[in-house]
Design brief:
Layout lengths: L1 H17 L15 H28 L1 H16 L4 E3 L5 H30 L11 H37 L5 E3 H18 L2 H10 L5 H6 L1 H15 L4 H24 L18
Parallel strand pairs: 1-2
Amino acid sequence: MENEESNQTEPAENVEFLEGEQSPDGPDLARMPILEHLRELRTRLIRSLIALAAGFAVAYAISDQLFAALTLPLREVAHGKLLLIGTGVGEAFFTKIKVALIAGLFIASPAVFYEVWKFIAPGLYKSERRMAAPFILFATAFFILGGYFCWAVVFKVGYAFFIHEYATIGVTPTIRISEYLAFSAKLMLAFGVTFEMPIFAYFLTRLGMIDHRMMVHYFKYAFLGIFVVSAILTPPGFVAQFLLAIPLLLLYAVSIGVAYVFRLPEGETEPAALGPGVS
């Protein structure tokens, strides 16, 4: 009788655990069904889009000033020998929309990174979830820093080269605002994303998923991957690719230093965030 009673109680406990009951030390994600993941992803995407819409609304109110700031590096290096033109009836309006979307993403980045963290948090152990505030703060700071570095440094260097090439053939450049915006937006977003590399190096190191030795060992593959990624993220042309690839290589080197400084003590290992798998 006692054996029968124990057999009757065990399935109930298993059912409760499979439905999402968190083990004392384990991540919630380990037992979440795949549909639950998809619902969670949808929720996080919708909230991120709402944050982006709010950022867009703020940015559109000052879109004229933002466009002037975005074209400032080009105007400075051209010394007045440049004409920005629009060739479509609604091009000025759609340019403002695009500028506001780009700026809105930077404005909404804290909320977006918060939603990213909330999505991955169920897969983390309790000690790892304490990194939420530092992750959001530093991920936002480095994303904005990457965009600013692109605007303040890369644009001036890159556009000075391109304008000089026009001067060597005796042509005054006339550039469509839509083409300029597409080029600038891709570069700024690419730099914003790639500046996250040291942040992810820190958190992956603290989670025991990578270390500095691994990053040094795979440097040659990273070198190749960086140039492939640069070719994908930047507009056509080797200059734009090098403008992104060189800072990326430097950031990889910085990430190795970050992984070394914040390495786990010898013999201490943190469990991987998504190790147990999904049922």
